[in-house]
Design goal:
single chain; about 140 residues; mainly beta; Rieske Iron-sulfur Protein
């Protein structure tokens, strides 16, 4: 796994406790928490790209301290550029605007809020969490 120069996101950052502690140990094939990077590798309102088993993720840290993990692939252009998008909000929802054609996506759900006249498309999202200063994402099944 590698961290790129830019990229972040799914739903919300979670502080783990007890049985919810993420693990990279072999276990259930259905759900695996994978350590991505230290939290301090992320800049507020700037994206970071990460590569895990051939899948590109875009990670985002908001001013509220939440981390989001979404696909780095822009569904409209097919380019892996979402980590370079412009982070903002729309009616209280954290968003990222694609640097390609400027579609705006909700970082919590991946839903496109502004299709710029194109057919609706969404970003894939993954749960993200912070534990002991490290960012984890939850992969379900095979990444």
């Amino acid at each position: 796994m590698t961290i790129g120069e830019t990229g972040i996101t799914p739903a919300r950052t979670t502080e783990f406790s007890g049985a919810d502690v993420p693990s990279t140990e072999p276990g259930s094939p259905e759900t695996t928490w994978v350590r991505i990077c230290p939290l301090d590798a992320l800049e507020t309102e700037r994206g970071r790209a990460a590569l895990v088993d051939g899948v590109q993720f875009a990670l985002f840290l908001t001013h509220e301290g939440r981390v989001y993990a979404v696909s780095n692939r822009d569904p409209y252009s097919g380019a892996h550029v979402m980590s370079r998008g412009i982070v903002g909000t729309r009616q209280g929802a954290p968003t990222v605007a694609s640097p390609m054609y400027k579609q705006v996506f909700d970082l919590r759900t991946g839903v496109c809020l502004d299709t710029q006249g194109k057919e609706p498309a969404s970003l894939q999202v993954w749960p993200a969490a912070v534990r002991d200063g490290d960012v984890f994402i939850r992969l379900e099944g095979n990444a």
